[in-house]
């Protein structure tokens, strides 16, 4: 009984202690819960996707994030987990992060670039503060295709009415109104737009970062339409039409430009003179109405009038005039855009197929296998028979033959082990699109495989847009892309042995160099010089111009070569002829680039005023850099396609 009494007393004590612990925990929870709720209520976040909610799924899409914070200043982090469609056996998977400084009791905003194909799958953006999710915003928008998105910078949604019923080369134009704050700060995100329309005053109201992105986008092949006149902000060039006094001019010259029978009558204009290098499309040199000039690969168009002029809006030919403007811009486009369809499965992302050429085991040649088999047959046949016959021990063949088979098997395993790589295997291919002024747009895909499980860390240039892909079902959080001020860091965690990881990166390089070209055309032949002003050796340099392929061989850095008639051959299919000439595009990892070049050719615009320079290089692309950790690299193969558009000057014949 005493034992039972002690047991009951102990049970009562333990029950009391348990109740006290539960009460204490309940008290803590009751105290902490309001504080946690207060933390959540101290932060609010909203996100605007694309342009007026519209975006193109095959491009990087700008997301304008606005955060209101009540509390002390702190460093927060934006976190986006992305997944995307499959490309063969590969699919997009990873976590993207951006640092965001929250001011004390204030608001802040920033732009981030998100892959459009991930938005189409549905995703949300988290704001992480003090290692916990403080706010979440669902990223919603409308993916569009078979239309040309044209942005109109204005605070009023009615400002897009002048583009109603307009088309560009048969494709309907979808105009979207953008506030000045909604213009992105990334040239890659502007690739969603076919054109951007803004008055000169609205251009000058943009931030320096927005103007730099706009200038880079136009130089890469974009189209800017400036309305009205005035001084453009740097680094945009001077506009085609200089500013002048306000005047009412005859708008009927617009009728011939639009292809209509009558014009709008009198319209308001502030035109001065047309620039010497500009092309006049409507009006006169004294009273220009519409003019354009090239800027890099892109174009800058300008109207000396406001598109919202009531007389223009009431004119029945208004839609035809803007349609004619877009069509004329397409006709005079002399170079394909560099930033286009980068995230399309058949576009830039197709470069990730370079992983198919990874060789986890380098098999010995047939001659090696032949020698091993011959040695085994000789040892198991004539040698064994001869030795046992001399020793009069023929019965030992039952033991010797299995022993020889075991030795041969061990030798084969040893031979296979020697072919097993001792470190990382990496294949990388990319494209270096030179602008001709020392800058370049570059993108590439890197495939990584290892015989051992481990982590890999890649450090890429700040501002690079990065996607990670994988061919297994590993957690998304095992691939993290951190966007920082000094670099973009990619961390691949717990990668299983023999599993492939893909890193696709793109960005601008301010000091890539150029291929300096001085071309002249006379009597259907191309003359001039080509100088390699990059820091890499260019292999298989060729010039494509007007049905002619000019072969120049390899060029070391600083080397110059002249074009001669003997180097030129007529071609009806310059892509296949270039592949025959530059064998790097038809062997090994070069097959991936060769297939991509065939698709890229659809966007190549060549006319008598420009030539296309092509080459390959064995390296030189920062996006294909090896991991920065200390894991050994057993094999690293890279190949880069280099291209640049160069102007061609006609030779003026005497007496013409």
Would you kindly provide a written description of the structure presented here, covering whatever features stand out?
Residues 1-23 form the signal peptide. The chain crosses the membrane at residues 369-388, 395-416. The protein contains eleven helices and 34 strands. The chain is an alpha+beta fold and 656 residues long. It has four domains: 42-134, Immunoglobulin-like, CATH 2.60.40.10; 146-339, Rossmann fold (3-Layer(aba) Sandwich), CATH 3.40.50; 366-419, no CATH class; 421-656, no CATH class. The strands form five sheets. The protein has a 19-stranded mixed beta sheet that branches. The protein has an eight-stranded mixed beta sheet with strand order 11-12-10-13-14-19-18-17. It has a three-stranded antiparallel beta sheet with strand order 1-3-6. Helix 8 packs antiparallel against helix 9.
Number of domains: 4
Overall residue-averaged pLDDT value = 86
> Structural class, from helix and strand content?
alpha+beta
Point out poorly predicted stretches.
1-39
Main pleated-sheet profile = 19 strands, mixed
Question: Briefly, what is this?
Answer:
The chain is α+β, with helices and mostly antiparallel strands and 656 residues long. The protein contains 11 helices and 34 strands.
């Amino acid at each position: 009984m005493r034992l039972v009494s002690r047991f009951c007393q102990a049970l009562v004590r333990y029950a009391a202690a348990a109740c006290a612990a539960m009460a204490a925990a309940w008290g803590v929870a009751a105290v902490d819960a309001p504080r946690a709720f207060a933390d959540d209520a101290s932060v609010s976040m909203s996100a605007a996707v694309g342009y007026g909610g519209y975006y193109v799924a095959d491009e990087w899409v700008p997301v304008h994030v606005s955060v209101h914070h009540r509390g002390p200043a702190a460093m927060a982090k934006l976190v986006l987990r992305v997944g995307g469609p499959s490309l063969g056996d590969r699919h997009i998977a990873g976590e993207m992060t951006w640092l965001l400084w929250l001011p004390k009791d204030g608001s802040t905003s920033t732009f981030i670039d998100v892959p459009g194909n991930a938005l189409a799958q549905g995703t949300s953006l988290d704001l992480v503060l003090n290692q916990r999710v403080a706010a979440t915003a669902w990223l919603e928008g409308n993916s569009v295709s078979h239309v040309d998105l044209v942005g109109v910078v204005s605070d009023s949604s009615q400002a897009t009415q002048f583009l109603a019923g307009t088309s560009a080369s048969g494709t309907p134009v979808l105009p979207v109104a953008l506030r000045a704050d909604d213009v992105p700060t990334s040239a890659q995100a502007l690739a969603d737009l076919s054109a951007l329309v803004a008055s000169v005053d609205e251009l000058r109201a943009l931030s320096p970062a927005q103007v730099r992105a706009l200038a880079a986008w136009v130089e890469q092949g974009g189209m800017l339409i400036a309305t009205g006149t005035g001084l453009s902000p740097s680094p945009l060039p001077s506009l085609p039409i200089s500013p002048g006094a306000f005047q009412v001019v005859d708008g009927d010259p617009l009728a011939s430009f639009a292809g209509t029978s009558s014009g709008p009558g009198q319209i308001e204009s502030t035109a001065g003179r047309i620039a010497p290098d500009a092309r006049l499309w409507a009006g006169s040199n004294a009273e220009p109405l519409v003019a354009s000039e090239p800027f890099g690969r892109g174009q800058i168009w300008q109207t000396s009038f406001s598109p919202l002029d009531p007389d223009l809006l009431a004119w029945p030919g208004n839609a035809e005039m803007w349609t004619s403007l877009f069509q004329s811009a397409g006709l005079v486009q002399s170079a394909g855009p560099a930033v286009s369809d980068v995230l399309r499965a058949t576009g830039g992302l197709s470069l990730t197929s370079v992983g198919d050429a990874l060789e986890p085991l380098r098999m010995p040649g047939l001659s090696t296998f032949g020698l091993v088999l011959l040695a085994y047959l000789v040892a198991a046949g004539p040698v064994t028979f001869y030795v046992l016959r001399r020793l009069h021990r023929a019965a030992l063949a039952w033991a010797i033959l299995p022993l020889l088979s075991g030795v041969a098997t061990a030798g084969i395993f040893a031979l296979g082990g020697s072919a097993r790589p001792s470190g990382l295997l990496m294949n990388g291919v990319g494209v270096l699109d030179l602008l001709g002024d020392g800058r370049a747009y570059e993108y590439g895909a890197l495939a990584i495989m290892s015989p051992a499980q481990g982590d890999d860390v890649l450090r890429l240039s700040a501002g690079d847009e990065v996607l990670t892909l994988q061919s297994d079902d590993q957690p998304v959080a095992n691939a993290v892309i951190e966007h920082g001020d000094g670099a973009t860091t990619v961390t691949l965690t717990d990668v299983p042995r023999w599993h492939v990881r893909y890193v696709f990166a793109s960005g601008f390089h301010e000091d890539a160099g150029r291929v300096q070209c001085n071309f002249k055309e006379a009597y259907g032949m191309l003359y001039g010089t080509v100088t390699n002003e990059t820091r890499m050796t260019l292999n298989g340099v060729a010039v494509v111009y007007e049905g002619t392929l000019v072969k120049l061989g390899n060029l070391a850095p600083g080397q110059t070569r002249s074009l001669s008639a003997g180097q030129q051959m007529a071609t009806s299919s310059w892509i296949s002829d270039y592949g025959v000439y530059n064998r790097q595009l038809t062997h090994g990892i070069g097959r991936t680039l060769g297939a991509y070049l065939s698709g890229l050719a659809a966007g190549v615009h060549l006319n008598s005023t420009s030539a296309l320079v092509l080459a390959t290089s064995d390296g030189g692309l920062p996006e294909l850099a090896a991991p920065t950790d200390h894991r050994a690299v057993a094999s690293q193969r890279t190949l880069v396609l280099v291209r640049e558009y160069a102007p061609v000057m006609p030779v003026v014949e005497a007496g013409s």
